[in-house]
Structure formats: structure tokens, C-alpha cells
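Hi everyone,

Forwarding the result from last night's run.
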Amino acid sequence: MASNRHLGRIISLQSLYEHEFRSRAGDSTAEIDTIVAKNIEPYAKALGDTEFVRDLTRGVLAEVEKLDEELQPLAPEWPISTIAAIDRNILRIGLFELTRRSEQVPPKVVINEAVELAKAFGADNSSKFVNGVLGTAFRNIGGEEGAHAESEQQERESQPESDKKPTKRAKKSPERAEPEPAVEEPTGISEPAGEPEDSGSDSDQAV
């Protein structure tokens, strides 16, 4: 059976979000392998390669502190702790795949997949923020300017709503306005509604 890696990333995001939420709430029973197994079970047949989810989730969690350190300079106005938990975990997954799995997954697929996760589970403008941060990360490791998953016009659209504004802004380039992240913590993440439609990235092939 072919691997459905788009669904796999959704389950990984669910699992990382749940683990972080429960751990911060002081739940000592929050164990990542148990959480992943629970989230995989309803979709195992559609998923195919369950080991992909386990490997991705464990890998991100094992390096979460290092990933956060690497993410911070990419969005210097926004401390990692103030970014919404969904966006934070999407960025961790994306950066992990860009920098630790670059030989397995094409960078443009990584960014596209992260943007799709942000559109599905984040705030209205989360996808622009995720796209901007991961696009910068890719350029910093020698990638092309054209790696952004969304167009210049989309990135110039209105800034996302936010209850907290930074006290000081860096100067913006006249060509591209850097979108802001959502800062409200979501109350939960919806589970995937059965087997998703084919997104064209199940096999992680760049288009």
C-alpha cells in the first residue's frame, strides 16, 4: 500500500500538539508513543506507512529545544512561546524535515505540506507566517528564492489578527511584508475527517 504522508503529518501534528498541551498541564502520563499509537489507530489503513509518523514525531520531540533555538532567529520579533501552539508545532515539523530529512523529502514539498497544515489547522493567516519562516530557513541553508509555497501577492495580503503586538518592529523590505503569527493558543486540533483527498504529495514528490 502506498504511503499517505500528508495524513501522516496531520497525525504527527496532532500527537505533538497533544503531548505539549498535556505536558504543560502537568499530566505525567503524557507519553508520546502511546499518543501516536492512539492517533494512528483510526487511520492505519488509509495511512499505510505508520512508521513514518512514529519516526517524524519522535524525531521532532527529541530535538524540540534545538529546533526552537533555530526557529527563533527566523522570526526574531516573536518569541517561540508567544506563537500559537499549532503554528509552533507546524514550524518544528517543517524545520525538522528541511534540515534533518532533506535527503528524503524535497524542500518544496516540505514547505508546501507545512503551509497546507497551517491552512487546515491554524488561524486565518498562519499559512503566510509558516511559509515566510520556512522559506527563510530554506534560503539560509542554500535554497532558492523560489522555494516559497505561496506567491509574492499572497504574502502582501493583510496582516493576521493578533491580540498581542510586538513593541518594536524591524524594518520591512518594500518588496515583501513579513506576516505575523497568531498568538492565541487554540483550544484543540480537529482530527482528520477520514481519508483525505489526494493532495499530490503523498509520495513526497515535488511537482
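Residues 4 and 202 are 5 Å apart (CA to CA).

Cheers,
N.
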